[in-house]
Every structure is written in structure tokens, then in C-alpha cells.
Amino acid sequence: MTETESTTDAFDRESVRSASRIAIAALALVGVLYLFTLLPGVDRLVPLTPVTFAAVASAVVTVAVVALLLFAAPKVASLTRTALHRTDAADHVERIAENAGALAYWLVVLAAVLVAHRGLAGAVVPLIDGFAWAYDAAFLVASFVPLVFVVARLTVTVDPLSELVADRVSGSESAGDDPTEDADGPGTDADGAEPSAGDDPGESADAPTDADGPTAIDAAGSQGHSIGERWGVDDESGDAHDKSAADESADDSTSS
User: Where is the composition biased (Low complexity) (predicted)?
Assistant: First the structure.
């Protein structure tokens, strides 16, 4: 593992740890607030105010949760970009990763605005009795800011995302085609028939064969000599017959 890879892994782990710690802390605060609302007397009004103790506690927890969400927004965006980033990816894939990170950031900010509107209502609206519409209008304007950025990022993501889908679909269709394969398939001759396993290309078509099968063997050999002449072996029976004939002719000449 190189130094760059180890640094990237450490950065990713730190970002994940920070984001998960923020999420766990926010859930813990919500759980504590729910337990606080179960206590007796929390629905009573704070002296000299139209606000209850539960609303005050809810407002405090809401401010803490909103702060955690705003602090976690850059880390969530960084994790989203890291998850979608590829070193050898095309340009449109890099644009998708960048836009996805920005989308994650502004969605977390929008969530923080909505949480603030819901959590602070119990403590703020009673104090501005008669101007509740101003409270809603203020948060409506505040929520428009992240919403506009979300819409803008979605708009610029449509084109590279469509290119990515086209690349994936066209790549999956052409993956099964093998341009090296012939139309008649591998291992076929000009007529489309596969060569037989027993065919020997070195065998001549005019090789002499007898009627019964394999090629006839000449007993006299390739030079026309007999086996006895080729190996230097005399025919013993022929020699004995020639010797007896010579003896008989000699006896006839003597007697005459």
C-alpha cells in the first residue's frame, strides 16, 4: 500500500467516524428529549411566559441537532464524493460524483432548516402571538436557498447520468460479441464442415492400397532384391541341390 492510499484510507475512516458520531449524538439528544417530555410538570408554563418547559427543552435540543446537522453536511458530501469517485472513470462519471456530493450537502442543510422550523415552533410562536405567519415565512425563505441548489444540481446531473446509463447499457449489449469469431464458428473449413479427427493432412490422396485395406508390402523390397540377397543369407537347400548335380555329372564323365 502506497502512502497516498494509506492517507486516503485514514481520511475516509476519519470522515466516517465523525459523521457516525454526529448521527449518534443527534439520536441521543432526541431520545433524551423524549424522556424529558415524560417527566411530570414539564407541560406547565414557564412563569411570566406563554411557553411550556417542554417547549423550551425541545427548542434547546433542536438548536443542538441543527448545529450537528450543519457540522455534518460537509462530511456527508465528502463521503458521497469518495463513494462515487473512480480514479480511471470518465469525465461524466466525475461530474456525477461531484454533483452527488453537492446534493448530499444541500439536502442535509434543508433537513436542518426543516428540523429547526418544527422544533422551535413550540417556543417561538407563543411569543409572537398574532404573527405566526412571519415565523413560517422566515423559514420558507430559508428553506428556498438549499432547495434551489438541490434543483440546480439535479438539473446539471441529468446529462452525465444519461451518458452513464447509455455506456452501461451499450457495454452490456456488446460484451457478448466476439469480433474474432468467424460467422461459421471456430474450427470449420470453407464448406462449414469440421475437420475429422482421423484425417492426416500429410497423407496423399493417390496412396496405393490393395482391395482389402492397407497398402501392399513388396516382399522383394524397394530395390527388387530378394530377402536373402538383401541380408546376405544363401539358400541352403539350393546349394545342396547344385552340389549333388555336379557330383553326378563328374561320375558320368569318369565312367565314360
Answer: 185-195, 205-221
- The whole-number average pLDDT for the span 238-255 is 53
User: Residue 141: which residues within 8 A CB-CB, separation 6 or more?
Assistant: none
Higher pLDDT: 57 or 89? It is: 57
Neighbours of 88 (CB within 10 A): 5
Amino acid at 4: T
What are the cell numbers at 217? 508390402
The model's pLDDT over 156-192, given as tens digits with 9 standing for 90+, comes to 888 888 887 887 788 754 444 444 444 454 444 445 4
DSSP secondary structure of 64-133: HHHHHHHHHHHHHHHHHHHHH--TT--HHHHHHHHHHHHHHHHHHHHHHHHHHHHHHHHHHGGGGTT-HH
For cell 452513464, name the residue.
164
pTM higher than the cut 0.70? no
Long-range contacts, 210-213 (Cβ 8 Å, 24+): none
- The x, y and z cell numbers of residue 158, run together, are 441529468
Residues 212 and 220: beta-carbon distance below 8 Å: no
